[in-house]
Automatic annotation (TrEMBL), chain A:
SUPFAM superfamilies: F-box domain. Pfam families: F-box, FBA_1. Transmembrane segments: none annotated. It comes from the Eukaryota. Residues 1-21 are annotated as: Disordered. This is F-box protein At3g07870-like. Residues 29-78 form the F-box domain. It comes from Cicer arietinum (Chickpea). InterPro entries: F-box-assoc_dom_typ1, F-box-assoc_interact_dom, F-box-like_dom_sf, F-box_dom.
UniProtKB/TrEMBL annotation, chain B:
It comes from Cicer arietinum. GO terms for biological process: jasmonic acid mediated signaling pathway; protein ubiquitination; ubiquitin-dependent protein catabolic process. Keywords: Ubl conjugation pathway. SUPFAM superfamilies: POZ domain, Skp1 dimerisation domain-like. Residues 110-154 form the SKP1 component dimerisation domain. Part of a SCF (SKP1-cullin-F-box) protein ligase complex. The gene is LOC101508600. This is SKP1-like protein. It holds the Pfam family Skp1. Pathway: Protein modification; protein ubiquitination. Residues 9-69 form the SKP1 component POZ domain. It comes from the Eukaryota. Belongs to the SKP1 family. Involved in ubiquitination and subsequent proteasomal degradation of target proteins. Together with CUL1, RBX1 and a F-box protein, it forms a SCF E3 ubiquitin ligase complex. The functional specificity of this complex depends on the type of F-box protein. In the SCF complex, it serves as an adapter that links the F-box protein to CUL1.
Length: 488, 156
């Protein structure tokens, strides 16, 4: 029995009301008008961020589509980890930040194309006199980051939801929140100053900070701390007590909610000593740091909800390393992958990666892989450092190798082979920050109307930095298919 | 109802140009537009006109569905097939297939085509993308210049 089917109506036809009768017009088919915007969105969601920005300039409707917060949410959910790379130079602070998108196709073994690194943005700092005039600097309370050449240095604290927190390079005072993809940034209010007139031979004040997101309230928060140390004493064999080393005494902690105009003090009494805090990572509405205290490591956590500073369960590798070796924070790295906290430890023997599968549950720290470093010619020195940075879903990982010259190592876990990439730059050292690019608008993020959102691209475009047009490329050095890796 | 559904042995799909394709029910499972219609029927044979899909395109879609519905094919063989499938298509074909997939409401094939099209426009100029989708810019030259400046790094 034949059934006529008129009920399957075409959405395309219903849209083109003036031409409803001619069901198919071969000459006009296909037109963009015919493709519903949710399908255009499906295509655009597949694109890397750079191409997505190009597509923003195609037409008004495409620009609107890409700018929608809903689109950004879908795009960020794909969690495309990329790296913000800054070359390292002892003579001056490089102002170019490069962007490396980590699609595995770029690194796959069998391909040998140099990977171009895009200069993402330049920190155009305000030491040019004309620049200052143009920006009407003298009417402003504070310049962007610094106004003197010697102040034009900044560090990256951490990345959270596509936003970077930039800080003073030395005392880690948070200065600016920036979306490096769009170039939007806002300045943070000044933190409470350190108490003056302290005798530097007896008291030492060290800053620390972190940037995170509180999903419950939808607020972005910056934490800033001053850690206070006093000179310790050691009793000499002759019974005389002499000043020796620094002893942790107290800390002050203040919190700033993005969009407000001030910092608020939070009472904390840690009851434990903190020598150093590293690798600020925001997961689950809390900021986490690795706490170093002489020969011990642990994880410290500040919960945005309870506003408590507490110790957090750490992975077993923290205890294994607890021998007489001096702890070095460079061989350990903490970060988050798709909302999971991970820790990478590296020794002269192996590199391991741990993931906390259930947040807050110490037993859920799971060993994801071990890489045997000692038996490989790639790692010739006992001082070799190896930081796993990314774990591809397809079973490949990117490692950052920090010996002599920094390089990236791409592993295919299943096939036990790897490929080494080096950045062609002299000296070949660089800083790498894992980052998930997003088109998130700072205007939507900040609560309060009196916060000025500035754009890094619209500032001082006349002034070019000497290094500005430099393009770096990541070049394949060699391929090895005999690497020994155990997957857990 | 369930017994009646399973009694359907052959489904006839009629493309826009009149070409006829006879397929097994498992092939159209992916085509939600067709499937939802079949679900409401209790006949043994069904003939369904698809006025928005060309014969050539429908042939390709059926070929794709057959390969992916097959339980004998390995994952590698399917991947290899996908690779070759995209390779022999022109840009126009891809856009037409995308629209056909949208009309037939084929979720995974739609994603597959979206990916294939994204691969073509990736790292291309604004002009290329406009040309590809036959879009006329509705920006004034000033607006466009401003927009390009804002997203400067993407144009290097």
């Amino acid at each position: 029995m034949e059934i006529k089917l008129d009920s399957i109506a075409s959405t395309r036809d219903s849209q083109r009301s003036n031409d409803a009768k001619s069901k198919i017009d071969e000459a006009e088919f296909p037109y963009f008008d015919n493709i519903p915007s949710h399908i255009i969105a499906d295509i655009l969601l597949q694109l890397p961020i750079k191409s997505l920005l190009t597509c923003k300039c195609v037409s008004k409707s495409w620009k609107t589509l890409i700018s929608e917060p809903h689109f950004d949410k879908l795009y960020s959910d794909r969690a495309r980890i990329s790296f913000i790379i800054r070359t390292y130079n002892h003579n001056f602070m490089p102002k170019n930040f490069y962007h490396l998108e980590c699609e595995s196709e770029k690194f796959e073994i069998g391909r040998n194309n140099p990977v171009k690194l895009n200069p993402l943005f330049k920190l155009r700092l305000c030491f040019d006199k004309e620049c200052l005039k143009k920006d009407n600097y003298w009417n402003r309370k504070r310049p962007f980051i610094g106004c003197k050449a010697r102040h034009d240095k900044c560090g990256i604290l951490n990345s959270c939801n596509g936003l970077l927190c930039l800080c003073h390079h030395n005392n880690l005072t948070p200065l600016v929140i920036l979306n490096p993809t769009t170039g939007d940034f806002i300045r943070l209010p000044e933190v409470t100053k350190t108490p003056k007139r302290l005798n530097p031979t007896l008291v030492r004040i060290v800053g620390n900070a972190g940037f995170g997101f509180h999903p419950k309230t939808g607020e972005y928060k910056v934490i800033h701390m001053w850690l206070k140390y006093v000179k310790g004493n050691r009793v000499m064999p002759n019974g005389v007590s002499r000043p020796y080393g620094w002893v942790f005494e107290a800390m002050t902690l203040e919190i700033h909610t993005l969009g407000t105009s001030s910092w608020r003090n939070v009472e904390v009494d840690p009851q434990f000593s903190i020598k150093e805090l590293k690798h600020a990572t925001c997961v689950n509405g809390a900021l986490h740091w690795i706490r170093f205290d002489n020969w011990q490591m642990s994880i410290l956590c500040f919960n945005f909800d309870s506003e408590m500073l507490q110790l957090f369960p750490s992975p077993p590798c923290f205890e294994n390393n607890n021998n007489n070796n001096e702890m070095s924070y460079e061989i350990i790295r903490m970060g988050q992958l798709s909302g999971f906290l991970y820790i990478c430890c590296a020794s002269d023997q192996n590199a391991t990666m741990w993931i906390m599968k259930k947040y807050g549950i110490g037993e859920s720290w799971t060993n994801v892989y071990n890489i045997d470093i000692s038996s490989n010619r790639l790692f010739p020195s006992p001082f070799t450092l190896c930081c796993p940075l990314k774990h591809f879903e397809e079973g490949a990982i990117i490692l950052l190798y920090l010996y002599k010259s920094h390089c990236f190592i791409y592993y295919e876990l299943e096939k036990n082979r790897f490929k080494v990439f080096q950045i062609h730059e002299n000296p070949p050292f660089f800083e790498v920050i894992p980052h998930i690019p997003s088109l998130i608008s700072l205007k939507d993020v900040v609560k309060g109307d009196n916060i000025e959102v500035l754009n890094i691209h619209s500032r001082c475009t006349k002034f070019k930095l000497p290094e500005e047009n430099e393009v770096l490329s990541l070049v394949q050095e060699f391929v090895n298919t005999r690497m020994k890796i155990t997957t857990m | 109802m369930a017994a009646e559904k399973s009694s359907i042995k052959i489904i006839t799909l009629i493309a826009a140009d009149g070409s006829v394709f006879e397929v097994e029910p498992n092939i159209v499972k992916e085509m939600k537009t067709v499937q939802s219609y079949i679900d409401e029927l209790d006949q043994n044979t069904v003939s369904i006109p698809l006025p928005n899909v060309f014969g050539n395109d429908l042939a390709m879609i059926i070929e794709y569905c057959k390969k992916h519905a097959s339980e004998e094919e390995t994952k590698e063989a399917k991947e290899e097939f996908d690779f070759e499938f995209v390779k022999r298509m022109k840009s126009d074909d891809k856009l037409r297939l995308l629209q056909a997939a949208s009309y037939l409401n084929m979720e995974s094939f739609l994603q597959f085509m979206a990916k294939a099209i994204a691969a073509e426009i990736e790292n291309q100029s604004v002009e290329f993308v406009r040309d590809y989708f036959q879009i006329e810019s509705d920006f004034t030259p000033e607006e466009e210049a401003e927009l390009r400046k804002e997203n400067e790094w993407a144009f290097k």
